[in-house]
Amino acid sequence: MWRVSRVDKGVVRLVPDGDVDAPDDGTTVATARDGTLPMTVGDPVVPAVGDRVVLDGDRALVMPRTSELVRDTVGKTSLVQVIAANVDVVVVVEHLEPEPALGRLERMVTIAWRADATPLIVLTKSDLVDDTDHWVAQARAVAPGVDVVAVSATTGEGLDALHAALGEARTLVLVGPSGAGKSTLVNALAGHEVMRTGDVRGDGRGMHTTTHRELVRLPGGRWLIDTPGVRSVGLVATEESVAATFADVEELAQSCRFRDCTHTTEPGCAVVAAVEAGELPERRLESWHTLRREAARQAMRADARLAAARTRQAKTFSRTVRAMKAAGQIHSR
């Protein structure tokens, strides 16, 4: 068995997915002209870092995925992009210095739930602040049921707690903004430098150091996928994944007077009442509304793309039939 460790134009790098002590001698395989590889079952697929692959002679066959971490690419005609495949845990990395962005945490956690993976929030640079406990509590409040760990990859503080939170997870993916210290965290988990780290700009923002997704072998048989910094995340979510991130809002909504309550101006809205009573932050409700709208728009775009693909397939089939009739390969009755 092999894993895709890196995807470049026209070629993918494979590494053996066996004994952790085995050498990392890898191999490369070429993709088709459209960038795809055949699957063991189903249509060809564009390979992603983390894919499991079997080699059949000179053919590389991608195995069905257990999970897909995806994002929406840029542009009106964009398609979803698979960031990582076969991931058990999505490690959402957010810096404590500068101040964490709670809205970004909500987005990243929603994407993790959408991937059918377990989110884990890691707050980095704990050695640079004095209010770590406050931000851990804030992170837990915006991601109910999600473990939150504060670490300093520089001093090693919190790394034992991070290993414990990872449990039996075999494949991890790190997501987060530039400057959050993802590459430094990767090096700390690996026990040696495997990712180049960079400086922070004068305004406190990070500079990109990771420029591609890559699979990294960790001690103990784990794999880790590092990703380029994400400054704006195109949400790809379902109604269920948004509900998982906002479990507190969903629970309050069960007590609304009307089943179709929009949680805006309706009388008897338990959600609005909680905001007015100071039990639910107004920012939290606004974020819920925003992500629900974005998820709905994404669903509509996905339906439109599917309809367009079906139309193209039908036209291609019709042209093929006409050509075969003209060549005498098909006879009309």
Give structural notes.
With 333 residues, the protein is α/β, with parallel strands linked by helices. The chain contains 8 helices and 13 strands. It has a 6-stranded mixed sheet with strand order 10-9-8-11-13-12, sandwiched between helices. Strands 3-2-1-4-5 form a 5-stranded antiparallel sheet, with no helix packed on it. α1 (102-114) crosses α5 (239-245). The protein is flat and about 75 Å long.
Layout of strands and helices, then pairs:
Elements: E1 2-8, E2 11-16, E3 27-30, E4 52-56, E5 59-62, E6 68-72, E7 80-85, E8 89-95, H1 102-114, E9 118-124, H2 132-142, E10 147-150, H3 159-166, E11 171-175, H4 182-190, E12 214-217, E13 223-226, H5 239-245, H6 247-253, H7 270-276, H8 282-326
Parallel strand pairs: 8-9, 8-11, 9-10, 11-13
Antiparallel strand pairs: 1-2, 1-4, 2-3, 4-5, 6-7, 12-13
Helix pairs in contact: 1-5, 5-6
Can you summarize this structure?
By secondary structure, this protein is an alpha/beta fold. It has helices at 102-114, 132-142, 159-166, 182-190, 239-245, 247-253, 270-276, 282-326, and strands at residues 2-8, 11-16, 27-30, 52-56, 59-62, 68-72, 80-85, 89-95, 118-124, 147-150, 171-175, 214-217, 223-226.
What labels describe this entry?
8 helices, alpha/beta, 333 residues, 6-stranded mixed beta sheet
